[in-house]
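TICKET #2291
ISSUE: user wants both folds in one file
ATTACHMENT 1:
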Amino acid sequence: MFCLQVDMGMVRGVPGDPSLPRPSISLSPTGADVTIRCQGQRRDIRFFLHKAGDLNLLRHVDPAGDGAEFRIPTVGRQHGGNYSCSYRNRSEPFVSSELSDPVQVVVVEPSLPRPSISLSPTGVTAPGADVTIRCQGQHWDVTFFLHKAGDSNPQRHMDPAGAGAEFHIPTVGRQHGGNYSCSYQNRSEPFVFSEPSDPVELVVAEPSLPKPIISPSGEVSLGGDVSIRCRGQGQGVRIVLNKGGRHVAHVDSEKSEFEFPIKNVRREQGGNYSCSHHSRSEPFVRWSDSVELVVRG
């Protein structure tokens, strides 16, 4: 993608010389500040920074070497957009290089309400199942983006008819496990994003993992205390207690087992329990067999 390139390589009326090596451009955010670095292959040149849609060159600098840094000290909504750079030899001030590839400055706006996110179905997901991730906002006429932790590019985006969007994963596999969040942008401000939602974790069951062990089953008196012990394989895992297929509690443990205490037992806490475990770095799990807790009285 190219930007601010006018009529056969002309940049604001200055010929773009295709024999000049095109510069490169990169972004380096630091807190609320952004540095845009332009890099060439020649010395004694002057760099120019361009913003798409703005016919005026934003800044220029005479570097001592073959690169230049342009700082935006406090980024605001007005700074969002596509940037590129060019250079001119000082001995030929009216001959410009062609533009670099663009980089995009996207501004996260704290004043926009954060969206919410939910998974359906909840809990641990069996391989091959269909999953829907729903993002919900408070504004209309917005575009939603779904992000997966560790992936710098939004996986999908869509233009919903209302203030929410649904993203479907039709056949879940190991590669889909992870933490997801969503954000949105107003279509009138394509470089201004909301802050991301809280994350949701998609955990995929993995039949090849060793099955954890759960105990005990039996009876407990109404108002009494009981502990459910889950034992997995390996250390440094997340152990999850499930009731009827739904997440009840979890713990990150350096040990291979953990006891989940249930104090002052209520009638609704009776039922079938199971546990699962997975590495904290890999959200793939294996369920234990289930045990039944019967509440007397």
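ATTACHMENT 2:
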Amino acid sequence: MRAQRRAIQTITIWVKRQPPKVKALMAVVAGMASLVLLRAVVHDHDNLFVAAEAVHAIGIALLIYKLTKEKTCAGLSLKSQELTAIFLAIRLYCSFVMEYDIHTLLDSATLLFTLWVIYMIRFSLRSTYMDDKDNFPIYYVLAPCAVLALLVHPSTSHNIVNRIMWALCVYLEAVSVLPQLRVMQNTKIVEPFTAHYVFALGVARFLSCAHWVLQVLDTRGHLLTALGYGLWPSFVLISEIVQTFILADFCYYYVKSIFGGQLVMRLPSGVV
């Protein structure tokens, strides 16, 4: 185990010494290698999307455990949870009126868990809520996403309102974690359960992104045509990629902390 830690520390030090362009290239190569591995191992790529939703649900379960057992919501962003509830509610609405399937049931469960977390933060554990650290203005997220949804949305045969709501859901999901990252940026110290939750979000976002990318490759681009025409298909993929890269830096330091035997993450300046 010590030899493994020394090897990881050596690699970490080497990576830190590399210029930003080299680090970016390494991240891209690692992502592509992961996609190739997933394509070879997972034959039905729809399972990746189900796995993403399951990992998200696990992350929410960790939060509920933290709130109920430790009786504190310190380090958690209420605004991120509210944004999550909003996009899940919109996605559920779209599922019921556009395409009801297994994902509707999974989203229903995740929404209920998220609403429970919001209730705990707002009422039961309000005294431990770090209101001064959760200072990311929520309208910085809602307003741009709403405008973008009005401008770029699916071109399917569904009602225009439903199509705009669908687009709003996709865009909100891509940036809903930003308030949580701001809280961690303000505190610089991330306790274990919050770190596990955000890492679970990062894994879920990567699996979801991998699902869309591999589906496009498998259908040789025909999936983009099925999503409609214009800018919308490209924006769906861009949103998935944005979600992944927003959390990539945090996930790197999370893995580094875990292998380094640290129970509490300490983020350096400039991270997230």
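RESOLUTION: both attachments delivered.
EXTRA DETAIL ON ATTACHMENT 2: The chain has a mean pLDDT of 79.
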